Amino acid sequence: MNKAPEFRKILIYGVGLIGGSFALALKSAGAAGEIVGFGRRPASLLKALELGLIDRAGINPAHELEDTDLVLVAAPVGQMPGIFAQIAPYLGPHTVVTDGGSTKTDVVKAARAAFGGKIGQFVPAHPIAGAENSGVAASRSDLYQGRKVVVTTLPENSDERLDRVKRAWALCGAEICELTPEQHDRVFAAVSHLPHLLAFALVRDLAERPDAPLFFDFAASGFRDFTRIAASHPEMWRDICLANRAALLKEIETYQNQLREFRTALEQNDGAALEKRFAVARKARREWGEKQEFRERTGE
Amino acid sequence: MNKAPEFRKILIYGVGLIGGSFALALKSAGAAGEIVGFGRRPASLLKALELGLIDRAGINPAHELEDTDLVLVAAPVGQMPGIFAQIAPYLGPHTVVTDGGSTKTDVVKAARAAFGGKIGQFVPAHPIAGAENSGVAASRSDLYQGRKVVVTTLPENSDERLDRVKRAWALCGAEICELTPEQHDRVFAAVSHLPHLLAFALVRDLAERPDAPLFFDFAASGFRDFTRIAASHPEMWRDICLANRAALLKEIETYQNQLREFRTALEQNDGAALEKRFAVARKARREWGEKQEFRERTGE
Fold it and tell me: CB-based contact (8 Å) between B258 and chain A?
């Protein structure tokens, strides 16, 4: 009594950490029939085949989409418009498309341009998972376990399609949240994109000094954690910054003002102002940390 | 055949994480005779007694210093001038004093003012260890194991005194490095003090927004690591910032310029410039990380 898997055929565009882990998770859940991978780099597709993440490397989307249940577009956001344009003409009536992009307003815009009247078949999503170790070899079946996936539903999405995409992410172990694309981009500009930029800036600042080794020699655990995200993928982060440019520029400006306030307090030797600001940050950070630990412990 | 411990009597001023771990490490090494703790907070001293970190809480420095081999001043740097002034009149001829301060130029200045002609008895040091979990209860005998301790030798330090202080830190498992106080402060402004300030600024920026919970809800592992140091002790960091004000202000300015460059690249939609900068940072961060891992694995 073999039950057909929930998604009989899945296409993954961009088989890296996000796409590979999605494939693994759905296979582990017994929810995936055939998984076909598309990508720019033949070496990554070969690796994905070797690791058993995909069953086949796709060649021509024109021959693959008609009978596909689910497409995940997990390439850097800068490549998404091109991928959407490639697949749009061939979507089957039952095909639903989702993505793993870290920005949403621009992805939705590109999807509208490419899919036109079929835009209802695209359900935008952003899995809040990842690591500075990108690449297909880093894929893990539990990457999404207990992580949030933000779905930014479009008015054109039918309940049935929306449910199917949510169901796929839920099968990966993720918790589904909803935001509008604008809310999403504002929030992630602040809690993810800006910190990445700040960490990149600090490390570059040190790396380009003539006596850089002296500085790196004495950098310790605080530096290690603060700059971990500065080891992230340059192309991916270039795309994210450009894609979320407006929201990120606003965040940079706000942060520059914040930093100027700290600088002024220091210039004025105003210890009370510094301590008060540090205390506000410490309290918020501790409360956040305790909440996170509680979530991780209880799975809530 | 009981050998007398290398340090028959040790005084610790400020029994928190740094002082408590120093006490534990020297006791574990069998190098400590009696350890006497001094501090502002009776509760911390009681806790230190309970945990067996100190043998006794001291009351009057006039009665304690004459026969003391080693004093560690491990209070926030803002309190050090007062502590130096308290102990200076009573130093025994054999007493050597070291400290655990995160800044050195100002500590040396305060020590010169307090110790006067006895300045040769003070050997400044900075153990590169610590955590956002401050306080005596977080003390660990292995806190300094494999960590660097920067000694900023003074011209007045005799070889014998210098060796005794280095020996104490080496018994804690630390690797001894030498810098001038000015080098020290410049390096740590860049790799420690600035990152702390940047992390405090980011968390405060979010914490004071009316819709702060929305942002914190979606903050994930990148944010967690980047902001870990924003949970650090406000008073301690106020003191460090003020004590290392000149070097830190220079670093803030350099960083502001760096950030402005990133912002300009983003404003101009200059993806190539962004990617290039990110790549410089990633390469430097990866190389640093690999070197650290190698050090940790091999103990070199």
Answer: yes
Query: According to CATH, what is the number of the domain A184-269?
Result: 1.10.3660.10
- The secondary structure element, H or E, covering residue B275 is helix B271-298
Contact of B286 with chain A, judged by CB distance below 8 Å, is answered with yes
ipTM of the complex: 0.90
Q: What is the pLDDT of residues A57-113, one digit of tens each?
A: 999 999 999 999 999 999 989 999 999 999 999 999 999 999 999 999 999 999 999
Q: Is there a contact between A206 and B194 if contact means CB atoms under 8 Å apart?
A: no
Give the domain B7-178 fold.
Rossmann fold (3.40.50)
Q: What is the pLDDT of residues B55-108, one digit of tens each?
A: 999 999 999 999 999 999 999 899 999 999 999 999 999 999 999 999 999 999
**Chain A interface includes B138 (CB < 8 A):** no
Domain map of chain B by residue range?
7-178, 184-269
CA distance B103 to chain A (A): 14
**Matching CATH topology for B7-178 and B184-269?**
no
Distance from the Cα of A192 to chain B's closest Cα (Å) equals 6
Q: Mean pLDDT across chain A, nearest whole number?
A: 95
Residues of B in contact with A192 (CB under 8 A): 219-220, 222-223
Among B226, B242, B263, the residue to mutate for chain A (most A Cβ within 10 A): B226
pTM for the full predicted model: 0.89
